[in-house]
Amino acid sequence: MARHGVIAAGNMLVDHVHHIAQWPERGWLAEIVQSERSTGGAPLNVLLTLAKMHVGLPLQAVGLVGEDGDGDYIMAMLDQYHVNRQHVQRTPSAPTSMSQVMTDPSGQRTFFHSPGANRLLDIDAFETLNGEMKIFHLGYLLLLDSLDKADEVYGTRSARLLAQMREQGFETSLDLVSRKGDPRYKPLVLPCLPHLDYLVINELEAGEFSGLPMRTAQDKPHVENIGRAAAQLLAAGVKQRVVIHCPEGAWGETPDEAGAWIPSRMLSQAEIVGSVGAGDAFCAGFLYGCHEAWPLAHSIQLAHACARASLLSANAIDGAKTLEELQLDIAV
């Protein structure tokens, strides 16, 4: 029987999203205009976006949350969207991870993050997963302290986990966190690449890994360097597809298919409500295309449509659309 469905694992948190009147100078006050709570982190954002696409895929979450109100909220959201939470464990040892997200009038977001229970998530949480599922997605590397630890055989524990998932027949996918100047990018990313089918990252993360400037002096995408970074990642071991995305478009490349730049249909600043979760929405659309064996360019076009829908909402989930609505957006 053909495998079917997506498992998403890793950082689970609650975003407390605040719209502020302006970003203040240090030591000064800024007014919070509006606040709301939403789920955050790669697994939840990807799974709930896929759920709202109404495509009928089996969906499963793997993670660790605290025994607190934010943990209750995550569990309730998974139930609401019919995501299997059998492997979402609860711990009394740490609070549920959370971020305070400040969104200024331009839609730019700034995160203040408390890692909480995510620091404790380790390989034993991934035993006895449903072997009928097709794709295993892990995020975010560099924010999963136990999985980011060194491993004598595989380099890191996250690399060991991804190798185990591939051995069990899953197609594997990875996302990183955007953390400028973090010296751990290469030491933590490189060991994982030979055990990956799909790598979907933004231009900031690609720049940290490759050391190449991803934007020109005119603040435009440096498409040539983005392509070079993708080629580096493929050469380092990614098996099927590497995608590097930014607001203006995305570069997609495979070992057997020349790289190509797929532009996005940009929104104006006035249209953007918030950018929280737009990268995860992009990833959800892309993974659906991979799951359905769509051509690379078509998968990226759907990913752009998912990200565009996300930008029209303050949080990571409310803007998500059905596949039918997304396909109409692609056709525009």
TrEMBL record:
Membrane spanning segments where? none
SUPFAM superfamilies the UniProt entry points to: Ribokinase-like
User: Does this entry carry the keyword Kinase?
Assistant: yes
Query: Which top-rank group of organisms is this from?
Result: Bacteria
Q: Where is the Carbohydrate kinase PfkB domain?
A: 30-321
Extract one GO molecular function annotation from the record: kinase activity
Alphabetical keyword list = Kinase, Transferase
Q: Name one Pfam family in it.
A: PfkB
A single Gene Ontology CC term? cytosol
Q: Which InterPro entries match?
A: PfkB_dom (IPR011611), Ribokinase-like (IPR029056)
PANTHER family registered for this protein in UniProt: RIBOKINASE (PTHR10584:SF166), SUGAR KINASE (PTHR10584)
Protein name per the record = Sugar kinase
